[in-house]
């Protein structure tokens, strides 16, 4: 194998690793919840609705 083929293989493996890491990080749950204040991680099961 010449050096050009080795470099292409290394770049290909790095790209696969990078894309796989991005997919895993997007699928895995966040530890601290989101910071956008959307209340997606809040449990409202103990709160009774107060409609007037």
A few lines on this structure:
The protein is an all-alpha fold.
Protein architecture, described:
With 52 residues, the protein is mostly helical. It has one domain. Helix content is 48%, strand content 0%. It is built from one helix and no strands. The relative contact order is 0.07.
How would you describe this structure in keywords?
52 residues; mainly alpha; 1 helix; rod-shaped
Give the rounded overall mean pLDDT: 82
What coarse outline follows from CA principal-axis ratios?
rod-shaped
Secondary-structure element order, N to C: H
Given as residue ranges, the uncertain stretches (5+ residues, pLDDT < 50) are none
Structural topology:
Elements: H1 3-27
Pfam families: FeoB_associated
Transmembrane segments: 6-24
Keywords: Membrane, Transmembrane, Transmembrane helix
